Amino acid sequence: MMICTCNECRFMFKGSNSIKRCPDCGAENIRPATDMEYEEYISYQKEFYPQGQTA
Ligand SMILES: [Zn+2]
Prior knowledge:
Blueprint: E1 2-6, E2 12-15, E3 30-32, H1 35-48
Antiparallel strand pairs: 1-2, 1-3
The structure holds zinc ion (ZN).
Residues 6, 8-9, 11, 22, 24-25, 27 line the site of zinc ion (ZN).
C-alpha cells in the first residue's frame, strides 16, 4: 500500500499511480508520505477502525 500526502492541506490518502490530485482539496501538489507520516496514518486507521475495517 502506498500512502500519499498533499503538500497543500497535509491530507493523507491511499495513493496509486492513477491518482494525481489530492482527493480532499484537489491540488496536484502531492508526494509519497514519509515513514513518519506513514506510521501516523496507520495508527490513525487503527484508532478509528480497530477491527481492521477500512474506510
Ligand atoms: Zn490537499
